[in-house]
Amino acid sequence: MLQDVVEYLVCPHCGQGLTTAPDGGALRCPERHTFDIARQGYVSLLPGDAHTGTGDTAAMVAARDAFLGAGHYTPVAEALAAAAPADARCVLDLGAGTGYYLAAALDALPAAHGIALDISKFALRRAARAHPRAGAVVCDAWRPLPVRDGCADLVVNVFAPRNGPELRRVLRPGGTLLTVTPTPRHLAELVGELKLLGVDGRKEERLAATLGPHLESAGSSEHDFAVLLDHEAVRTVVGMGPSAWHTDPAALAERIAGLPDPVRVSASVTLSRFVR
Ligand SMILES: C[S@@+](CC[C@H](N)C(=O)[O-])C[C@H]1O[C@@H](n2cnc3c(N)ncnc32)[C@H](O)[C@@H]1O
Ligand SMILES: [Zn+2]
Fold this sequence. Notes:
Elements: E1 19-20, E2 26-28, E3 34-36, E4 43-44, H1 58-69, H2 74-83, E5 90-94, H3 100-108, E6 113-118, H4 121-127, E7 134-138, E8 152-158, H5 164-170, E9 171-182, H6 188-193, H7 203-211, E10 216-229, H8 231-240, H9 249-257, E11 263-275
Parallel strand pairs: 4-7, 5-6, 5-8, 6-7, 8-9
Antiparallel strand pairs: 1-2, 2-3, 9-11, 10-11
Bound molecules: S-adenosylmethionine (SAM) and zinc ion.
């Protein structure tokens, strides 16, 4: 519930704390900046001039929800949950999407509350219901995050944008960041058959370069597993990848039609730990 996490949120205009308005329908700061709580339970804390153009569309979100719900990436959720520090109380998921990984972390942390942060309201409609101890907040990862300095014991970031300075600011000293990024082996068969651009072999290096100046690297592990995907799931997983993957849609559809149905594909991710 959003109410459980309001204490961690700040106003995107003036940076002061937020409280729930007496009628329960909005959050408000002492300067009376007011943010309506959507019927679906999330709140937008984007400053007025921001746009939501980079977020996932309703169709992309529905496809991802079905894909994750089918359990294809369960090993990733399990690895993340196993790596979560047991004493974490406040958990943020930056670029949370539907809240699938945040829910997995909260299941492993019975005393914690979580906040799903994402720029897509379509994703957050689902994230707001992803877990009873989670709230969902629309914001832009490339702007100051609308959460208090040092409030987070744990931040998770799965296939999503990473803003080093803000990740450092919102973590408490000693707090943990867990990131999940694809390795060059991720979906290698699809990359080959569908002529997609593969994962940059220096992704690991770039991750360290982005976060290194702000947080201390504390190890990583690789997780390789196979997934069996029907053509719908193949389309979803291609859509979930970086936009650079998108080739000509007609050619892509034709190549997908030529794949076995279902097709066995390798999944491969790096789970990295950083500490403030
Ligand atoms: C590939 S998806 C991953 C979602 C989720 N972590 C998962 O793995 O299911 C990337 C997510 O980042 C979000 N996103 C993209 N740009 C963003 C931004 N500037 N600020 C916040 N979220 C953003 C998208 O809306 C999307 O939900
Ligand atoms: Zn304010």
